[in-house]
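call fold target=MFS transporter
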Amino acid sequence: MFRRRPVMSPLSRALLDIRPVRTSPVYRRLLIGRTVSTLGSFMTMVTVMYQVWDMTHSAVWSGAVGLAQALPMIGVGLFAGSWVDRADRRRAYLMSTTGCAVCSLLLAVQGFTGHVPVAGVLALVAAQSGFAALGAPAAGVFVPRLLPKDQVAAGLALNQVTGQAMMLLGPAVAGLVLGWWGIGVCYLLDAVSFGLSFYGAYGLPALPPEGGKSRPGVHGVLDGLRFLTGHRVVRGALLTDLAATVLAMPTSLFPLVNAERFGGDPRTLGLFLSALAVGGVAATAFSGPVTRLARPGPVMLCASATWGVGLALFGLTTSAWAGLAMLTLAGAADSVAVLSRSTIVQTLTPDALLGRVTAAETIVGQAGPHLGNLRGGVLAGWSSGATALVAGGLMCLAAVTAVGVTTPELRAGGAGADEPEAPRDAPRDTPLEAGGPAAGVTAGP
């Protein structure tokens, strides 16, 4: 007797695909540990900003917090990716998690004692960011190695929605803990959260690179860059992301636009930031059709164009409610674009190169928004906040259109990419597509 395949309702198909949580105990543990650790990381981010301002009352020192976080991520990133592609990714991730936990413990100690100068606090923040830069390319291989290829997008969506939820929850929890128990307890809770992340990854099997190890040093980095420039779909995805962030990142313009259009009300300013996050969470929660469609290329192009249009319309509106609606639309589009970009990178990159390409993706995700906020501030200084928003949105739309026109492989779906040259140290029969059941384990020990 044949068993009938269960029929999914339209609502079930629209909601977030949770098959990875049901089918892979290893992935489930990783997701839980990652979610708790992300909560702790956002608590630390708020606590560092609060502590540095409390110690200095200086906008320059407050700005240095972002610099201390960004520079190690960029400087360590590509070389960390090359090293990860030579090592056991599980061991590299556990080492990264341990380093981050130690930094949080040291931050907690100085938070309780109060005897460390602000430069020392920023040095610990920079060290923690460096360890995180080591862990990011290692973690980038987990989803395609642990899940079947048709569940990779769903696994990335689950990672994304839990991260966005913690981004909303973390600052609020940090505020409560700071008010009740102080900065030392906040840092200590972050250290504990890394312990759960360590537990989540400890049960992984060994995950050495498949298809040959990276060459050491600069040669390995250059092999990764050669793949990025030669693979038109992956290159197009990263260029699309850069166009969206560098040309249209809006957050540095929010205070100015709020003052120009809405009387400088701090409540409105807070809603601007929340609207982007709400749109992102909502889009990811209803990402079932996107992850099942298996056409991340055109989805990313459409979502990135929508991001630009939404921000341009926000720059034109004089109604706070209409502006919030446009920001919610933009946040939803950005979330879909990021999900599609990650799906492209992790399904089309050979496992032997995935650490380096994930590191490059992380750098794009870190550096692009910072450059975009700088661009918006400079342009607004020459004109106005609204003009900078509209110009940025239109430039983003034009750049995304250009990438789509010149990259037919990306428009075609992102799954039938041309095959670039394999790394010189890898066997010539190395497959150029990673992921799938054969690429790793689907159940925990």
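return ok
Confidence is low (pLDDT under 50) at residues 1-7, 416-445. The chain has 19 helices and no strands.
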